[in-house]
Here is the input.
Amino acid sequence: MNKLALLPAIALFLLLSTAVQACELQPIPIAQQHRGCGCSYYFPSRPPIRPDIVLQTDLDGTNPIMMHQGKLVNLWGAKESPLLTQTGFSLAQHFRYQATAIKVENRVRPGCSWGELGCEVVGYLSQISTVENYQQCQWDLQGDCGC
Here is the structure.
């Protein structure tokens, strides 16, 4: 077989494998997850399976962390934002890490009203999107903010 004929196939494979890697959200290892008050964004799962948390922030949206190529990283550009608590409202947050732009859009998930007895956590239906090297990826997540 002609070795030159394999070159386009190998180049296509390498291109596609890096594209798949760019569109991957990795879970934050349990030992590295922040505890206490804050927000956690995750792929929903059914008990007893623990959800995979892929992004965490403080309650005001600052100090965001996520995994990037197997390392826990601090994201840049976080701005303080009010805790979204009213159903029907939405809020977008923007972060960066190196050449990656990250956007998180939150809508309050129907349920108990923030501040009522037994409702110390507000739930979100969230969408996270990333853009890196002209490639855009998007995922539907859930989020919880509280103490």
